[in-house]
Amino acid sequence: MVINDTLSTPAETVSEPPLAVAAGRRIAFHLQVRFPDGFVAFSTFKEEPISCTVGDGTLTPALETAIDGLLAGSEAEFAGDGSELFATYDENNVFWLERSEFPPELHPEPGKVIAFETPAGQETSGMVLETEGERVRVDFNHPFAGRALQLRIAILTVET
Length: 160
Fold this sequence. Notes:
GO terms for molecular function: peptidyl-prolyl cis-trans isomerase activity. Its EC number is 5.2.1.8. By secondary structure, the chain is mostly beta strands. The chain has two domains: 2-87 and 144-159, Chitinase A, domain 3 (Roll), CATH 3.10.50.40; 92-139, Thrombin, subunit H. The protein contains two helices and ten strands. The strands form two sheets. Strands 1, 2, 3, 4, 5 and 10 form a six-stranded antiparallel beta sheet that branches. Strands 6-9-8-7 form a four-stranded antiparallel beta sheet, with no helix packed on it. The two termini are 27 Å apart.
């Protein structure tokens, strides 16, 4: 993983210096994920920020390492592998499904992302890879797994 220099740092003030991201601290941040061609695949910059406690399992260890030490108010960009930063690609998460398992009004086409419900009642998504007769091959891996990514992160707050 390549981490670029911090793009901006908070201005110095007379008050206490900003806290740095570290294990056990509660953080709020914006995240943007881009593919190498510049396509923005995910962004919270115009939405609610992500909030979590570093080390609670919300973020992968690689993502926590990438943001460790960033100060509240700072912004950084870095490149990384989606399998490290989000989820490992697993060939066992690619399945052939029968066309009859899809609603009649749904036309699975390669590249289409479709919402599914697991037997346990949880919602998940899968990307259609190909169709072959009455079968549809669907990839249930995290959409960033196995892909080169560019991330932009703005640390909004860090609390003890």
